[in-house]
Amino acid sequence: MTEPGTELPIAPRRRGPAGLRLMLAAGIVISMLLAVGAINSQAHAPPTESAPAAALRSPAPLHGLAAPPGAPGPGGDPTRRTLVLYNSSGASAELSHSDAIQAANLASRGGAWVMHPVEQYSPGELRNYQALIYVARYSPDPLPPGFLSDITRGRVPVLWMGDNVEQLFTAQPAATSSYGWRPGGPDTIDVPLVDYGGQRLLRRTGLSEVVNQVELKPGSPAKTLGLAVHPDGSSYPWAVTANNLTYIGEVPFSYVDTKDRYLAAADIIERMVSPATPDRKRALIRIEDVGPNTDPGQIRAIADLLSSRGVPFSLATYPYYRDPLGAAHNGTPASFRLVDTPALVDALQYAQQRGATIIMHGYSHQYESARNPYDATSGSDFEFYAAHVDAENAVQLDGPVPADSRDWAANRLAIGRAEFVRVGMPDPGIFEFPHYTASPASYVAVQDAFGVRYDQGTYFAGLCPAGACTTENVPGPEGLFQQYFPYPVRDVYGSIVIPENIGNISEAFNTNAARTPQDIIDAARAMTVVHDGVASGFFHPFLPLNELQTIVEGIQAQGYHFVSPADILADRAP
């Protein structure tokens, strides 16, 4: 259960690449309220826990959609390939690799991709691809001459983001003169805004991330795609395109939030790798943190509201409720399963008959009896990663949980799926990590069993040099970063990711401001700059229904129409 700007307030190590700051903020308060206050009659007399179901070891129903990392995402053309390059030398080598992972995830929208360091580029290699993305962090080393000459001599579309572009102009002065612009050097003034696609997108990096200026020549044929805007309103090109080269003056994958200039970069990538994709403006809504402790009446009311408006929806459900410390039961431990709450099972089936898709949202949405980081109660805590609250009251990610392994995660998935089947519900085909966080071992286990997720992703720079993040032994959160997606992708774990990107309603918590229905609608409006973007948010079932109605109608007013996860997965290459 995560989204940009809500949920647990993770204390960032760099306020990191696309989404470390997004991932978890004030929504945890809502989750805790769910655990403590929304159990209703069960709070006084919780059901008796049944024995766990026998593990279901066969692949989940949609596992046939799984593929190796580098394969196309939904709607991607397998005959199109993008080469993703990054710097493996210099002080920012690890950051450049994390940038490349994010670029590759986005590039899967249009087709397959291959990733490797720019230092390993071979002359003529570009001819084997339909697009090139270079995420350039400063390196003192010279770029391969064949790489520079292939860019200017070829017709393959190239997206260059960030640094080192002066090497291209120095090495190829005759060719680069036709671009109509030249590098202007790093900007020493903060750029808080980027104008793109008729909207003013946010850029909250301060001077921690500078923009490299672009100077247009008189009568330049270059097209300005976006403007970097200073606090005084003055501006210069943030992104330009001419001939086969598109340039963005930064790598816009750090300090990302909703309504961020990251959306502009995602749009530029999508248009380059998938030029024929129609602009459909689809939307998704997910009901979050449904568990055996959820009030069945709330589920029925939501199903009635959304189905009456023809809106498909999802129910992110964990099948095993645990309160091992008695935080929600006056100090008395409690735990029970779906099979122990037949009224909720009836409500879930009622919702399915009215357009709901059941998503498996972890097994218990907490870890053993640990305060991870709060009270060990389902819906509040992490399940597949360890965390604590620091002295500044922010959440710190610590590393894999003590029991972490591919087999441990696989067993939780297998029993959790069986809990749904034993009560007569379909075997879930889609998984969502609690708080969108897990170790690489757990991600691989989900790829093994499901191959389809509906969330944002946690990734680890340096652990997947060719883009295949299969390393299981991760000592801690070094190199960890998160990313959300404005459209469906296949990420570096090989899983299809159905996006979630505009967030949820939440109360103010820690340093995070409250988020209202209007904030969600505004995030959806910003998402309209993305060609064929999917505006996707979630809603907790105990909140007032009129707020859900406001969100749905507000998103529809932006030109979106709501679809189901199956509609997203059914995308075909244009």
CATH structural architecture of the largest domain: Alpha-Beta Barrel
Q: In the CATH hierarchy, what is the class of the largest domain? A: Alpha Beta
* Number of discrete domains: 2
Q: Indicate the low-confidence ranges by residue numbers.
A: 1-15, 19-43
Q: Count of helices?
A: 13
Hey, roughly how much beta strand do the residues contain?
15-25%
Per DSSP E runs of 2 or more residues, the count of β-strands stands at 25
Overall shape: it is elongated
Strand order in the largest sheet: 2-1-3-4-11-10-9-6-7
Distance between the termini: 32 Å
Mean pLDDT equals: 90
Q: Based on helices, strands and strand pairing, what is the structural class?
A: alpha/beta
Helix content: 10-25%
The fourth-level CATH homologous superfamily of the largest domain is Glycoside hydrolase/deacetylase
Main sheet properties: 9 strands, mixed
CATH fold naming of the largest domain: TIM Barrel
> What is the alpha-carbon Rg in Å?
23 Å
